[in-house]
Amino acid sequence: MERSMKTLMKMGLSTALVLALGACATSSPDVIQRGDAQRMSQVQDGVLLSIRTVTVDGSQSGIGAAVGGVTGAVAGASRGAGGGESQVIGLLVGVAGAVAGNTIERMATREEANELLIQLKGGERRAIVQAKGSETLVPGDSVIIVTTGGKVRVTKAPK
């Protein structure tokens, strides 16, 4: 019993670590990925037409479900009286753990963001969603759209 409790604690710690690392991922315009440093970027000038708050749904990589399922199965199997009963309890608690792990991962990686509608100098419009950054943008601001390796971020245009 003590051995399965240690295993359960290790798996719980693993779940917490995976979810904490997942929560570190961001789409903030203030955070530049290492692979995007020292790369040439395309810049477009525009004017911010509107801004609205949106929520970017969290990720569901399957890691939370897998870790939650294994943790639940180990905990459930150690609770039964032995034989088939332990296996059934382990299976049921494992499924519940997988659902809980998936939900925790999704909620931990959800973030508030802004949807920006921008009018480019040539008259075209672009809609871009990015996490809220340290800069306050308001309609009418002159902005630049910086595109690097397929990723886009919006910031105020230099004066």
Automatic annotation (TrEMBL):
Secretion signal span: 1-25
Keywords, ordered alphabetically: Signal
Name of the protein this chain belongs to: Glycine zipper 2TM domain-containing protein
Organism of origin: Rhodoferax fermentans
